[in-house]
Amino acid sequence: MLVSADRMMAGLDEGQTVPGGTESSASKALALLAAMAEATEAEFGVTRLGELVGVPKSTAHRLLKVLEGRGFVDRVGVKYRVGPLFFRLSEAARWSEYGELREVACRPLAWLFERSQAVAVHLAVLCGPDVLYLDKICKPAGTRLPSRVGGRFPATCTALGKAVLAHSTSAEVASVLGEPLVRATPRSVTGPGRLAAQLAEIKRVGYATESEEACHGMVCVAAPVLIGGTARAAVSLSVPSVGSGEIGGRFGMYGAQAIEAATRVARLVPDRAWHERPRAAVS
Fold first, then answer.
1. Domain ranges within the chain, ordered by starting residue
2. Which of 16, 162, 172, 237 is most solvent-facing, going by the fewest CB within 10 Å?
3. What's the pTM?
4. Is the CATH number of domain 5-89 1.10.760.10?
C-alpha cells in the first residue's frame, strides 16, 4: 500500500490521523535532503543539519528517522548521509529533460574535451541566479574547479552563465542585474553596467569568456546551446590562466570550438518540445 507524502513525512501509516503542520514537515524534510545533496560534506550530524535548514535539533532528528526508514538517508554511527534511494532517483533523472540533454551532450562534450585539450569541459543550465552543472569531464588538474555535477555556482561569475544570459530575455537579465552581483574572486564582475556591456559583446561574438572570476588560476570559454532561438544551456572549456597573454590570443579558437560543441548538442536534442517550451524565469 502506498502511503501519501504528507503521512510519510509525519511518520504515519494509512488510517492514522495527520497532525497540523504536516505540509511544513514535508517541506522541512525536503529541505534536509536538498542540504545533504548540495553540501560538500559526506556525513552530517543532526545538529549540523538542523542548522543548515533552520530547524531545532529535535525536529531534524524526527524527520531524519522517517527519511532513514524510507531509504532516503543512511545512519553511520551518530551521523547521516544520503541513502540508497538516491541512486534509484538519479537513474530515474535520466528521463527528465535535463537527463535527456546530458545524454545527447555526451559525445559533443567528449569531442570538445579532446579537441581543445582543456583541463575540464562542462554542460550547465541556468537555474535562478546560478548555473546548475549537468555534466563535467576533467583531467586531474580540473578537479580543483568549484564545479561538480548537480552543484550550483553564481551565474555571473561563470562563462557558462554569461553565455546563457547574453541570449536571455531583457526581463531575465534585468532580474539578475537588479540584485547584488556575487564576488567569488577579486576578479568577479560586480558592476551591473560592466556586466551588461559584457553580455552585449558575448551576444555579438557568440561566446563568453571569464578569467579567474570563478576560480583562481583558471580561464573559461563558453557558448550557448540555442534551441528554438532560446539559450537552454551552455557548454564550456577551462584552461589554466598561466601565460594569460598567450591564452587571450587563443580565445577566438577556443570560442569557435565551444560554439561547434554547443551547436552539435542543439542538433542532437530529440524532444522537439524543447523548441517550444519556455525556460523558467530567472529568480
1. 5-89, 96-275
2. 16
3. 0.72
4. no
